[in-house]
Amino acid sequence: MPSRADATGGADVARSVAPASPPRCRWFEFCKLSLGYWKGETSREAWTLTFIMALFAGLQLSAQIGANAWGRFFFDALEGRKISSLKESVILLAALALFSGFAISGALVARMRMQLSWRKWVTEKLFGWWLEDQRYYRLEISSEEQTSPEYRIAKDVQFAVEPLVDFAIGLLTAAATAATFIGILWSVGGSLQFAAFGASYSVPGYLALSSVVYMAIATSATLGVGRSMIGAVAKKNETDAKFLAELMRIKENAESIALIRGDADEHGSLRANFANVVSACLTQIRSNGIVVTVQSANGALVPLIPLVLASPKYLSGELSLGAVMQVASAFISVQVALNWFMDNFVRVAEWMASAQRVDELVESLQSLDIAAIMSEGNFIEFGESDDNGIHLERLGVAHRGGQIVIAAANVLIAAGEKVLVRGASGTGKSTLIRALAGLWPWGAGRILMPRNASVAFVPQQPYIPLGTLRGALMYSVGANVTDDMIERAMRRCGLGYLIRDLDKDQRWDQVLSGGERQRIAFARLLLQSPEIIVMDEATSALDEESQISLLRLFHEELRYATVISVGHRAGMEEFHDKKILLERRPAGARLTSRTLEKPVWHLLGEQMRA
Known about the structure:
The protein is α/β, with parallel strands linked by helices. It folds into two domains: 117-367, ABC transporter transmembrane region fold, CATH 1.20.1560.10; 381-609, P-loop containing nucleotide triphosphate hydrolases (Rossmann fold, 3-Layer(aba) Sandwich). The protein is built from 21 helices and twelve strands. The strands form three sheets. Strands 8-9-10-6-11-12 form a six-stranded mixed sheet, with helices on both faces. The chain has a four-stranded mixed sheet with strand order 3-7-4-5, covered by helices on one side. It has a two-stranded antiparallel sheet with strand order 1-2. Helix 2 (43-79) runs antiparallel to helix 11. The longest helix has 49 residues, at 83-131. The radius of gyration is 35 Å and the shape is elongated. The two termini are 47 Å apart.
């Protein structure tokens, strides 16, 4: 349990010291998360696709074995000038090509289908988790760095899932291929007999052993020169994501930047960000060049080594030309199989970088769970009140790092009361509103809300979704709303001239002015009829007359709702019953409240309505 405020009123919201946790193996954590695809509702589909991929992988291996055997048959026929056997080999080659084509195309379709299905499952799990419990918002206000969740969900998941399918198929196929063709090398190549220092020696399966030894040397060389590749790829992906986030930020704030002529500043910021991208790319290019040098040298040697090793037995007559070509083909197949990791080293590095970024997002989302916050001993308790009022009991609000914003406060907001929150800039007004809306859990004390009360939050810049104006008005409202109700709400909020455009689909977030967007938010309140309304500068873009018209809603159509609003504009006090003032203090802002007097005309209006 978190410690409570002391007798002096200061809230103890310092972060508790927890024992250091062991380092997180991010690629392992990603695999553990993504393997959930083979469980639950998707298990049948996952295992079916896995079986189909395994089946076609087996058919591909059978085609390789057939091609290897065909090579020996063809070259033996060629060496013996057997015309009939050569004709037969042509027919066999056609059949083998058809079979191989079927196996390859089937494997490709099965692999792509698995990649899409698996990516869909991981992506839906992540964005569902991201949207749940307002984590998308908590992540933005609590993260010290840009996490770019949109890039990680849209791109890094793809880059982490799709190669994993390739790796799984490639690794299993490589193991089966290596085992099969090592057996062919062992049986066809036989033993190597040689004399040295007056004694005779025999090396059984020397071609098979040579292929394994050569693979070990080549792989070790690649690992030795390419250890820096993983870090270079991770750095490049990180800088790419930050550059993309910067571009998106400029797009989202285009009007503000244009109005203040901030083009030069943004140009400089973009140049600096892209310089980081270029630097990271150059580092990856250098690492990639070293790895490719080793891979190219290996590719040039592999076809020659089996011919050199088999030539003594061919010259002695122990191996036919067909047998030499068969062992050469088998040796290359073994190298391709055993060098699978070396050939895919760059892709493995890229996969590990993407898996790391996905797991970083997962870890960030996990840290936003209420259970995780509670384990830190640094959270606000949320409970239910018994009198339909809102109770702040020794409430202390803090930044996530522990810095106190608001000291311990005790405030009662009765049901139906209209409360205005004011204070100097930086005293924590918006943070208090977020805490009341359940979006800010960091701090101490308790917030008690009426049981099952419907709460509506109205920000300074209301959100307008894509689609029709009707959809914008109905956003988060519910289904039991008629056209007459929508039109009445629009007219009451000064939007009657837009009724004809209700079903027009366009970018309303760009078409509507700031004042119109705030009117949309008040129209939503009329359609929702919430029991509690929490507002943050919700009338800042309205003219004085429009502000008065909309604030009258709280004493007319919405008179039974409890209202808590932040606002600085003149005239707002006339529409509220109580004012809470945040006074700056070194140990956190202190809350004081007082009842407001209403003008005579306001009181007369209420009596007439009563």
